[in-house]
């Protein structure tokens, strides 16, 4: 589903190199965990996959279902099924959450040549998904992410993911700032979305989240490269010994 | 960064096709000869069958106007207007004043249908109760029809064209006309006093809550014709009225002048809510053509506990020069100004308000949202003045500007004058562009750039949109979207 | 306005013209300097001083407010320097406009400004900034002396340098071009004070040039007498990566206009501007800022705190201009006023003129009396009302001064503020 080949990327504004020859393959139906110390390029990778303008790819390619997506803007990538659950969801004053959800869902349907949702159908879908995630309907009447607590924001991200039905889900530090109960709800939400034609990339600093969203593969990112790949045991190894061990060996 | 350049490039290609109301109606007209003179003023006054005192009033204003100079302090730039090259009166043939719906030329009715203005007095539509709106339709220099007149009359509300009111209610006109905006107030207001042709008159008597929304729809159709409307709204003690005006004009290469005067008077405990959706033709992609919109609007909170609220959505006109103001004379009176001003292409906007606090415990609130795109310039200019005896006055002003593209300008010029220690005045202003974070977030959810921007802009202007009567809020939101079309990738 | 119908001069305008005519033979400089002086005076003569119709003078109608201009004294009064504002400061005396050419400061180049008038190098700088620059015109035509100062590149001057301008009755017109060389650091205190309390007209222009990487602190302390007219102007040009902390304190004068004309022309540069206006008596004080962010990546913050007693009138005009292409400008301005009397007034005109889109600019302005909740809280702790008020007013203005790093300076300025408040509150 996703094939990243020798990817080099930098911050557009000042040319700082962040990704230095990264290779990664994620198959449909797979849950891939990307771990790594702070500053290893984890969040940058999520931004580059979703097409953020602030980064420049200087070399290599990203193939999504066999096609390069480098020339697509974020909206085009999203309608092809790439979804990023942000580490820090953005507050947008004045924009009602419901209105936002409706526009997003219908734009993606339009881009895929599908019928737009009727209002009752839309409301039904949102209500059901919100109930699953234990989201208070009152929250949906507020402006997008404004005044949401950290946990509420993360849950709202997963709600969007459920509603938009993406094919490639990228969760960027979704566990940060969540207590254990919230973490379980979020993980259940993600697990419910697992399917043979959908891949999930879980970006995380800690093993904790991976107890609830069990990965098929684990990749360690350091200085913009995948320095080691393995199965879920690799995450446990990291938890026990820390990153220093692996980084030392790689160097 | 490529996308940003693309955005800017597209800003330049504003397509005139976006202006949906640019059609012209071919209709037989009566016109005054070109130019401005005492004779022309006599001609207008005679056409309107005005009493002698009204003619005197006009001629007096004209003499004063001849001695005045065009103001230059606003941040707008345009070639000098030759006032003798304009027509000051144009009316559909055989139409010197409003008639009943049955008598109106069907061609004219089609114009309003095309513009989406409800001129039929139907109340029930397929069993659904729609909110009812009474409309005064002004076409060039005359009011062609005023709907729901009879029903309003039953409630004691007078709603008619100002020309009719001058004939039918001279005592009210003499008492109130020019009492808020004196004939010599400023260059354009004085010109208007001399040559005004039509407009609306509203009188809501003591204790009456006007049973429906009132609105006037202004249409400039004729070439080289100035429109000089005059509106006067009086709410007596305890009365309430909500009024909305809309404006459109055909696309033409020549600039056209629109110089209106609006006066509002609110007596004790009265409330007037005045909303404007201004969509005059803005000119084409090269800045050719468009309306010069030079307007004086002022409300007088003459009574205690009275309230006047202005809401404006300004998307049209090549040049806008207007400052809907409130004179807070009565104790405990309140003034409000909510504004959205969108400029694109080569449009120039210099708009804002004045809140003049004279009475005790007066309060005012100003919320202004400016959006500049293309090569436009958008200026907020506002004055808050707390006079010596205005004990416990309060003002809050919030003025935000958004820039889309780097060839436009956004300017904020507040004047704050406080002469009483018990006053509390608070002003804040910001200028920025749409945040990249917000745009990226919305686009990541699959919403294309242009819509993403429209969505964020709609969030930005929400505080003001919600002040509009519901029926018009949706329309206004769409209009803002259309005005910004082509400004983004 | 191409019509050259001569206007009828006011007594003050006439006095300025007469001062010039009487002194022209004696004013330092000739050639280009005299030509410039003539032109500036002729401007005053033909178009007069600005009125409120001139937007830059909207709240200070100089033509009406400047009622009379005292005649210059035939001989300068004999004045002596006073103790510097902070101990250890190096004083450059300016006694009734006359400088002491013999004063030297280690590591700093100091010369008499009159020298550059005489040798003609000052000619270009004498021109007015624009057609409404009345201070530039008055000062440019009548200036006699001042100091030309250069801080050599790479040097750090530890002790503050105090420009101590004292005057008696009459007129004083001075100018201080100061260049901060690349990477240099220094602190200046520009201090204006009446020595005798007799009426004077003072015009003073400081021309500050910051070269690459220079860091300067500049403090203006204006404590003119109750009869004085003070027309001050600071012109600043920023070089790349330079920094200026500019503090303006007005605590005197009858008619005061203090202009700050700042051009941020160097990328990466930063302005921190703070102002305190202590207004009392029957006075008129106007601080007008015109700040141009002309290149990308510059920052500025401006905070003004004003208190108004008695029948005083205060004005703050603050224009922030962001030029096209000056992307990533971050400029924020606040102007807060305590209006403590119904006989006083304060007018604010903070302007934003923005031509670049990737900017964060904003301004805020408030005018109010002391917050009753604050007052109540202090009183509930047993502090009597007048004391509580004084505390709150003092805190309101002193907060701004506390941002200075030099503790001795903070202490000295706080002293000036409390002394002023004690006298007026």
From TrEMBL, chain A:
<keyword id="KW-0547">Nucleotide-binding</keyword>
<dbReference type="InterPro" id="IPR010230">
    <property type="entry name" value="FeS-cluster_ATPase_SufC"/>
</dbReference>
<dbReference type="InterPro" id="IPR003593">
    <property type="entry name" value="AAA+_ATPase"/>
</dbReference>
<dbReference type="InterPro" id="IPR027417">
    <property type="entry name" value="P-loop_NTPase"/>
</dbReference>
<dbReference type="Pfam" id="PF00005">
    <property type="entry name" value="ABC_tran"/>
</dbReference>
<protein>
    <submittedName>
        <fullName>Cysteine desulfurase</fullName>
    </submittedName>
</protein>
<dbReference type="GO" id="GO:0016887">
    <property type="term" value="F:ATP hydrolysis activity"/>
</dbReference>
<dbReference type="InterPro" id="IPR003439">
    <property type="entry name" value="ABC_transporter-like_ATP-bd"/>
</dbReference>
<dbReference type="InterPro" id="IPR017871">
    <property type="entry name" value="ABC_transporter-like_CS"/>
</dbReference>
<feature type="domain" description="ABC transporter">
    <location>
        <begin position="2"/>
        <end position="248"/>
    </location>
</feature>
<dbReference type="GO" id="GO:0005524">
    <property type="term" value="F:ATP binding"/>
</dbReference>
<comment type="similarity">
    <text>Belongs to the ABC transporter superfamily. Ycf16 family.</text>
</comment>
<keyword id="KW-0067">ATP-binding</keyword>
TrEMBL record, chain B:
<dbReference type="GO" id="GO:0016226">
    <property type="term" value="P:iron-sulfur cluster assembly"/>
</dbReference>
<dbReference type="InterPro" id="IPR000825">
    <property type="entry name" value="SUF_FeS_clus_asmbl_SufBD_core"/>
</dbReference>
<feature type="domain" description="SUF system FeS cluster assembly SufBD core">
    <location>
        <begin position="218"/>
        <end position="460"/>
    </location>
</feature>
<dbReference type="InterPro" id="IPR037284">
    <property type="entry name" value="SUF_FeS_clus_asmbl_SufBD_sf"/>
</dbReference>
<dbReference type="InterPro" id="IPR045595">
    <property type="entry name" value="SufBD_N"/>
</dbReference>
<dbReference type="InterPro" id="IPR055346">
    <property type="entry name" value="Fe-S_cluster_assembly_SufBD"/>
</dbReference>
<feature type="domain" description="SUF system FeS cluster assembly SufBD N-terminal">
    <location>
        <begin position="151"/>
        <end position="210"/>
    </location>
</feature>
<comment type="similarity">
    <text>Belongs to the iron-sulfur cluster assembly SufBD family.</text>
</comment>
<dbReference type="Pfam" id="PF19295">
    <property type="entry name" value="SufBD_N"/>
</dbReference>
<dbReference type="InterPro" id="IPR010231">
    <property type="entry name" value="SUF_FeS_clus_asmbl_SufB"/>
</dbReference>
<protein>
    <submittedName>
        <fullName>Cysteine desulfurase</fullName>
    </submittedName>
</protein>
<dbReference type="Pfam" id="PF01458">
    <property type="entry name" value="SUFBD_core"/>
</dbReference>
From TrEMBL, chain C:
<dbReference type="InterPro" id="IPR037284">
    <property type="entry name" value="SUF_FeS_clus_asmbl_SufBD_sf"/>
</dbReference>
<dbReference type="InterPro" id="IPR055346">
    <property type="entry name" value="Fe-S_cluster_assembly_SufBD"/>
</dbReference>
<dbReference type="InterPro" id="IPR000825">
    <property type="entry name" value="SUF_FeS_clus_asmbl_SufBD_core"/>
</dbReference>
<keyword id="KW-0067">ATP-binding</keyword>
<dbReference type="GO" id="GO:0016226">
    <property type="term" value="P:iron-sulfur cluster assembly"/>
</dbReference>
<protein>
    <submittedName>
        <fullName>ABC transporter ATP-binding protein</fullName>
    </submittedName>
</protein>
<dbReference type="GO" id="GO:0005524">
    <property type="term" value="F:ATP binding"/>
</dbReference>
<dbReference type="InterPro" id="IPR011542">
    <property type="entry name" value="SUF_FeS_clus_asmbl_SufD"/>
</dbReference>
<keyword id="KW-0547">Nucleotide-binding</keyword>
<feature type="domain" description="SUF system FeS cluster assembly SufBD core">
    <location>
        <begin position="171"/>
        <end position="396"/>
    </location>
</feature>
<dbReference type="Pfam" id="PF01458">
    <property type="entry name" value="SUFBD_core"/>
</dbReference>
């Amino acid at each position: 589903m996703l094939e990243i080949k020798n990817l080099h990327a930098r911050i557009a504004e000042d040319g700082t190199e962040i990704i230095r020859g990264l290779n990664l393959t994620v198959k449909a139906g797979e849950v891939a965990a990307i771990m790594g110390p702070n500053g290893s390029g984890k969040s940058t990778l999520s931004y580059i996959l979703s097409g953020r303008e602030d980064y420049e790819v200087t070399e290599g390619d990203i193939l999504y279902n066999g096609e390069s997506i480098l020339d697509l803007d974020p909206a085009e990538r999203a309608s092809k099924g790439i979804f990023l659950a942000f580490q820090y969801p953005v507050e947008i004053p004045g924009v009602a959450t419901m209105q936002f959800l409706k526009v997003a869902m219908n734009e993606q349907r339009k881009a895929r040549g599908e019928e737009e949702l009727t209002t009752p159908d839309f409301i039904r879908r949102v209500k059901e998904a919100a109930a699953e995630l234990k989201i208070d309907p009152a929250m949906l009447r507020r402006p997008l992410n404004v005044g949401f607590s950290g946990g509420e924001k993360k849950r709202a991200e997963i709600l969007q993911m459920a509603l938009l039905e993406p094919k490639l889900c990228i969760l960027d530090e979704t566990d940060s700032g969540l207590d254990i109960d919230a973490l379980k709800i979020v993980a259940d939400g993600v697990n419910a979305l697992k399917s043979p034609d959908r891949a999930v990339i879980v970006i995380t600093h800690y093993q904790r989240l991976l107890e609830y969203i069990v990965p098929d593969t684990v990749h360690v990112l350091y200085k913009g490269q995948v320095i080691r790949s393995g199965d879920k045991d690799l995450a446990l190894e990291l938890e026990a010994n820390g990153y220093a061990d692996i980084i030392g060996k790689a160097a | 960064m490529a996308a940003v350049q693309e955005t800017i490039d597209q800003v330049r290609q504003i397509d005139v096709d976006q202006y949906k109301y640019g059609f012209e109606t071919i209709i037989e007209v009566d016109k005054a000869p070109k130019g401005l003179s005492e004779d022309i003023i006599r001609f207008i006054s005679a056409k309107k069958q005005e009493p002698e005192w009204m003619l005197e009033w006009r001629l007096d204003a004209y003499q004063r106007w001849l001695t005045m100079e065009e103001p230059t302090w606003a941040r707008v730039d345009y070639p000098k207007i030759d006032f003798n090259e304009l027509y000051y009166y144009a009316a559909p043939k055989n139409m010197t004043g409003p008639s009943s719906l049955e008598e109106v030329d069907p061609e004219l009715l089609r114009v309003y249908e095309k513009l989406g203005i409800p001129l039929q007095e139907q109340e029930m539509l397929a069993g659904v109760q729609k909110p009812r709106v009474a409309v005064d339709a002004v076409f060039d220099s005359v009011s062609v029809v005023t709907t729901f007149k009879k029903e309003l009359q039953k409630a004691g509300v007078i709603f008619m064209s100002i020309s009719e009111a001058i004939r039918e209610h001279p005592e009210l006109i003499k008492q109130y006309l020019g009492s808020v905006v004196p004939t010599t107030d400023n260059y354009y207001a004085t010109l208007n006093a001399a040559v005004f042709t039509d407009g609306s008159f509203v009188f809501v008597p003591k204790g009456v809550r006007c049973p429906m929304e009132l609105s006037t729809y202004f249409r400039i159709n004729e070439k080289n014709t100035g429109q000089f409307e005059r509106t006067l709204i009086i709410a007596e003690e305890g009365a309430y009225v909500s009024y909305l005006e809309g404006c459109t004009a055909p696309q033409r290469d020549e600039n056209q002048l629109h110089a209106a005067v609006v006066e509002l008077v609110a007596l004790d405990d009265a409330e007037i809510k005045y909303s404007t959706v201004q969509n005059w033709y803005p000119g084409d992609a090269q800045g050719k053509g468009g309306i010069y919109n030079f307007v004086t609007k002022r409300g007088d909170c003459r009574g205690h506990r009275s309230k006047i609220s202005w809401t404006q959505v300004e998307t049209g006109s090549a040049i806008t020069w207007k400052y809907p103001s409130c004179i807070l004379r009565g104790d405990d009176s309140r003034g409000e100004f909510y504004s959205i001003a969108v400029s694109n292409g080569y449009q120039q906007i210099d708009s804002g308000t004045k809140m003049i606090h004279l009475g005790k415990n007066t309060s005012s609130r100003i919320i202004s949202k400016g959006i500049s795109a293309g090569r436009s310039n958008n200026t907020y200019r506002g004055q808050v003045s707390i006079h010596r005896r205005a004990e416990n006055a309060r003002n809050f002003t919030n003025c935000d500007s958004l820039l889309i593209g780097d060839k436009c300008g956004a300017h904020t010029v507040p004047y704050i004058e406080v002469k009483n220690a018990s006053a509390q005045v608070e002003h804040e202003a910001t200028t920025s562009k749409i945040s990249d974070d917000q745009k990226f977030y919305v686009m990541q959810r699959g919403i294309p750039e242009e819509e993403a921007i429209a969505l964020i802009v709609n969030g930005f202007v929400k505080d003001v949109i919600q002040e509009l009567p519901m029926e018009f809020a949706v329309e206004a939101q769409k209009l803002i979207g259309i005005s910004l079309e082509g400004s983004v990738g | 306005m191409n019509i050259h119908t001569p206007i009828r001069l006011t007594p003050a305008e006439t006095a300025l013209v007469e001062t010039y005519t009487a002194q022209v033979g004696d004013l330092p400089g000739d050639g280009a300097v005299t030509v410039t002086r003539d032109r500036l005076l002729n401007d005053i003569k033909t178009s007069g001083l600005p009125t409120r119709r001139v937007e830059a003078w909207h709240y200070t109608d100089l033509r009406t407010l400047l009622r009379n201009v005292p005649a210059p004294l035939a001989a300068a009064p004999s004045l002596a320097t006073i103790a510097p504002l902070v101990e250890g400061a190096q004083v450059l005396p300016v006694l009734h406009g006359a400088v002491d050419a013999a004063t030297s400061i280690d590591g700093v180049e100091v010369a008499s400004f009159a020298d550059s008038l005489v040798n003609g190098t000052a000619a270009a700088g004498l021109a007015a900034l624009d057609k409404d620059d009345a201070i530039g015109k008055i000062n440019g035509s009548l200036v006699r002396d001042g100091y030309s100062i250069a801080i050599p590149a790479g040097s750090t001057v530890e002790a503050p340098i105090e420009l101590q301008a004292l005057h008696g009755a009459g007129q004083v017109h001075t100018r201080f071009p100061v260049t901060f060389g690349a990477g240099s650091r220094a602190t200046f205190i520009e201090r204006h004070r009446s020595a005798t309390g007799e009426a004077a007209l003072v015009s003073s222009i400081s021309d500050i040039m910051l070269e690459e990487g220079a860091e300067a602190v500049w403090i203006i302390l204006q404590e003119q007498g109750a009869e004085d007219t003070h027309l001050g102007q600071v012109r600043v040009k920023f070089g790349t990566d330079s920094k200026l902390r500019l503090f303006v304190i007005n605590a005197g004068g009858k008619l005061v206009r203090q202009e700050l004309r700042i051009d941020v022309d160097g990328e990466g540069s930063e302005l921190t501007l703070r102002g305190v206006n202590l207004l009392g008596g029957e006075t008129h004080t106007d601080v007008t800022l015109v700040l141009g962010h002309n290149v990308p990546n510059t920052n500025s913050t401006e905070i003004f705190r004003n208190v108004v007693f008695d029948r005083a009138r205060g004005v703050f005009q603050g224009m922030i201009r962001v030029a096209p292409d000056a992307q990533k400008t971050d400029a924020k301005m606040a102007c807060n006023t305590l209006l403590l009397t119904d006989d006083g007034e304060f007018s604010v005109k903070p302007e934003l003129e923005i031509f670049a889109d990737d900017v964060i600019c904003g301004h805020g302005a408030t005018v109010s009396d002391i917050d009753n909740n604050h007052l109540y809280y202090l009183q509930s702790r047993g502090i009597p009302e007048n004391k509580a008020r004084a505390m709150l007013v003092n805190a309101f203005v002193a907060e701004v001064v506390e941002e200075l790093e030099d503790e001795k300076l903070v202490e000295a300025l706080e002293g000036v503020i409390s002394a002023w408040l004690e006298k007026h509150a």
